[in-house]
């Protein structure tokens, strides 16, 4: 089914790359005080919010707060989800209130042949099984002992794209080895020292990553109150880490976790383009003006994102910003979306408004906390099944 077949009406951390030994993985459990459970649920989980509930039960408070936390009052974090529905969220003091504000409605057409529904699509010329991919999120070992290796295996099995985070808690080499056939992009927090960026980009290119995703909305870290209350300091708790593998430790200076460049500007993109053949995707674009600049600077794609509401509170929900960005690029580059996707209906709405695919953040970590690789597979399968139904009932 092509995008123009949808009918819709709108009504209203540059961390080092971790090379973790099993000892360091165990330290996650000691530092954050959580216990993994390998037991199955009494009944099958039916939707992504079921996984959310299980993850909340299984993770320690500090780990849960880190994964779920938003910036400041959490208005944008909550609005990402609410914007797909019928409500906008606002908070007064400690109370969260819902206000009816019609947003997006589907306009179904019937008496159409829906005996075959094909979810496949392409991103940057690579086929994926459905327009549902995995966004870059860090520290997967907080949710499951194998961390990103479990996530990578699930993505490979699902035939979808996994964007590996700069804050991965497993080494890039381990991630590639465990899922050698998977479609992988790499998310980069730009370091102030260009040489270190260059070495890392060359490394991911040699490892077979197929695109470079540069996060643009973290010149500084957002104000995350729950982490402050929990005195959560990943930079201290996770000790020192290096962006290089063991073999490179004698040739590259040791880095601690993480300065991120505060001076990255549009003109710097030409330097990245000069030293890699990978397509460059910008993650964190929310406005027409920045979308037009992205096209002007010859990037290959945009991820419409507000960092899961973890950076600047009070910005537009991702789905609300999508139409503006899609209109600005005029079909010249691909546009993707992350933030707030919880159902197949949400995926369909994003596609209908111009996204090539969506990327999942927190729901992947919920699945990981529930049952590791198998939990992530279940999350992806549920969303694919829901999208299949929504598509068949809409055309």
TrEMBL record:
GO biological process: fatty acid alpha-oxidation
GO molecular function terms noted in the UniProt entry: (S)-2-hydroxy-acid oxidase activity; FMN binding
Active site: 307
Alphabetized UniProt keyword annotations: Flavoprotein, FMN, Oxidoreductase, Peroxisome
Cofactor needs: FMN
Gene3D superfamilies according to UniProt: Aldolase class I
GO cellular component: peroxisomal matrix
Residue sites binding FMN per the record: 136-138, 165, 187, 215, 283, 305, 338-342, 361-362
Residues engaged in binding glyoxylate: 66, 189, 224, 307, 310
InterPro entries: Aldolase_TIM (IPR013785), Alpha-hydoxy_acid_DH_FMN (IPR012133), FMN-dep_DH (IPR000262), FMN_HAD (IPR037396), FMN_hydac_DH_AS (IPR008259)
PROSITE patterns the record matches: FMN_HYDROXY_ACID_DH_1, FMN_HYDROXY_ACID_DH_2
Swiss-Prot/TrEMBL catalytic activity: a (2S)-2-hydroxycarboxylate + O2 = a 2-oxocarboxylate + H2O2; 2-hydroxyoctanoate + O2 = 2-oxooctanoate + H2O2
Superkingdom field: Eukaryota
EC code(s) of this entry: 1.1.3.15
FMN hydroxy acid dehydrogenase domain: residues covered: 40-395
CDD domains documented for this protein: alpha_hydroxyacid_oxid_FMN (cd02809)
Compartments where found: Peroxisome
PANTHER family: 2-HYDROXYACID OXIDASE 2, S -2-HYDROXY-ACID OXIDASE-RELATED
Similarity section: Belongs to the FMN-dependent alpha-hydroxy acid dehydrogenase family.
Record protein name field: (S)-2-hydroxy-acid oxidase
Organismal lineage: Eukaryota, Metazoa, Chordata, Craniata, Vertebrata
């Amino acid at each position: 089914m092509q995008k123009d077949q949808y009918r819709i009406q709108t009504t209203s951390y540059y961390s080092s790359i971790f090379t973790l030994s099993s000892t360091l993985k165990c330290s996650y459990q000691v530092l954050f005080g959580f216990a993994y459970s390998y037991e199955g649920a009494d009944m099958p989980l039916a939707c992504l919010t079921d996984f959310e509930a299980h993850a909340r039960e299984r993770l320690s408070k500090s780990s849960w707060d880190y994964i779920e936390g938003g910036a400041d009052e959490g208005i944008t974090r909550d609005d990402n989800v609410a914007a797909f529905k019928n409500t906008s969220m606002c908070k007064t003091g400690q109370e969260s209130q819902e206000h009816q504000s019609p947003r997006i409605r589907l306009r179904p057409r019937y008496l159409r042949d829906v005996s075959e529904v094909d979810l496949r699509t392409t991103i940057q010329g690579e086929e994926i099984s459905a327009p549902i991919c995995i966004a870059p999120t860090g520290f997967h070992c907080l949710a499951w002992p194998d961390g990103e290796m479990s996530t990578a295996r699930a993505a490979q099995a699902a035939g979808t794209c996994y964007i590996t985070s700069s804050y991965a808690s497993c080494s890039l080499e381990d991630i590639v080895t465990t899922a050698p056939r998977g479609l992988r992009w790499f998310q980069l927090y730009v370091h102030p020292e260009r040489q270190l960026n260059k070495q890392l980009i060359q490394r991911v290119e040699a490892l077979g990553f197929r695109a470079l995703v540069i996060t643009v909305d973290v010149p500084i870290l957002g104000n995350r109150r729950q982490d402050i209350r929990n005195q959560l300091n990943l930079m201290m708790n996770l000790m020192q880490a290096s962006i290089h593998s063991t073999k490179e430790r004698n040739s590259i200076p040791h880095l601690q976790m993480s300065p991120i460049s505060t001076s990255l500007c549009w003109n710097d993109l030409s330097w990245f383009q000069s030293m890699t053949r990978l397509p460059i995707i910008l993650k964190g674009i929310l406005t027409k003006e920045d979308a037009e600049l992205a096209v002007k600077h010859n990037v290959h794609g945009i991820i419409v994102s507000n960092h899961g509401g973890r950076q600047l509170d009070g910005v537009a929900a991702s789905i609300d910003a999508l139409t503006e960005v899609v209109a600005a690029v005029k079909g010249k580059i691909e546009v993707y979306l992350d933030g707030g996707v919880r159902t197949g209906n949400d995926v369909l709405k994003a596609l209908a408004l111009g996204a090539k695919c969506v990327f999942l953040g927190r729901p992947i970590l919920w699945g990981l906390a529930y049952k590791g690789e198998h939990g992530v597979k279940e999350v992806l399968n549920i969303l694919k099944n829901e999208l299949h139904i929504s598509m068949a009932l809409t055309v």
